[in-house]
Amino acid sequence: MASANLMNSYKRAQIYLRTKDHAEMRKSMKRTPKKNYDELSRQILEEIGGKDNIINCAHCITRLRLNLKDKGLANLERIKSLSVAGVQFTGDQLQIIIGNEINEVYDAFIHTAGLEREAVVEENLDGESSRKNLTVKNIFSSVIDGIVGCVIPLLPILIASGIIKAIVLILQQAHIAAADSPTCLTLNFVADAAFYFMPVIVGGFAAKKFGANTALGAMLGASLIHPTFVSMVGEGTSLSVFGIPVYPAGYSSTIVPIILSVWVMSYIENFISRHSPKALRSLIEPVVTLLVMIPLTFCLLAPVGAMLSTGFANALTWLYSHFGFITVALFSAAIPWVVMCGMHVGTVPIAIAAIAATGIDRLMMPCFFLSNFAQGTACLAVAIKTKDANLKSFAFTSAFSNIVPGISEPGMYGITLRYKTPMWGAMIGAAAGGLYFGITGTGSLTFLAPNIFAFAGYIGSGEYAGNFTNAVIGVIIALAVSFIATMALYKPESQ
To answer: When comparing pLDDT for 322 and 228, which is higher?
Structure first.
């Protein structure tokens, strides 16, 4: 019944989007008929300069993400006129906002373009190497794009692991299974594997992103968490490579060190490949690449990456300790603008670093969590207050999308941002919930997508015994304030 009602709601929303008086909404939120996925893909491909202009093609929950060799070939105005919700450049990455059909559009796009998933196209427009020159701008842009590009395929693993850990916590809190029971022990080490072996997994993704050998990328990540190395670091044993001291650091559950190392490796590997005899390339390239990368990784790049990760975590700790409730409140209110800029995925490494370093993330995940509930409640208020039947249906659907699966774009672009006052209502509500979270020290104990199921990530014991209760109270505050503020600010007659 619920499914049928949701489908009817969706159909009514489609009628609304086709209404003559809402042409602007129709342009930004029109869904693509299934039969037109191939045509849309062909049009997008044409407006970005064709396959030969693509370096990397990936997607997140709602966006097609493309790295292009020549950004100037992308016609943003023409792309905006297609059946998409929006388009923008974030750094060097072109982000085309599709919506809930992203999986279908992505499949159609890579088929039309003749690409593999997350493919890297090596040939350049002029037939020369597609690698960028080593400039400060390119280095910064490549690192940022690399982090985002590597995190996107990592998200399903992180979410699945987080849910499994949350299930373990629920079993323990409900006294169904003890912490040392075979079931809990097994589930825990399986869930922990995704985080512990993260350098290996990300090493492979990073190599694919930067056009390097995938196996070498994974091997480089594996070397950072080899039991012998971990043991020697733990014992304080001095290490060196070719007489160069090795910085003693732990790299399990880290992302930045391996991404930085593999990014540099892609240039090293390319140089060696171009200067190796073809007959011996398959032998020389991996051996020499590793011999060069071992001292670079262990003595320079990985330590720098570890320091950056620790710096992120320490910065969050400092902000929280000095401006705790203010920081959480302001960032909770600002989340919609972070999402609109397409930088929300880039916050994942910071959240992971915080959980790895301190056991809890009190800023990133909680703020997204509160913002999604606040956005959904603002849509709900619009649905209740408006007299337009089609807008009412679309607003109800958007509220559901924000709160249950945690997808904010439909409601944000179609409701809160369009009518402005609901956006203010959502921001006020998220800030109010953030104040409570900040004052009480509420945070996420594991990585989970910011939706209704993320409550499980706030279940804790010991010093975090009250964390779940405070999470519920904080969300209720965000819901109540968002609803009241939107009901007060939103004027249906002004639409």
So the answer is: 228
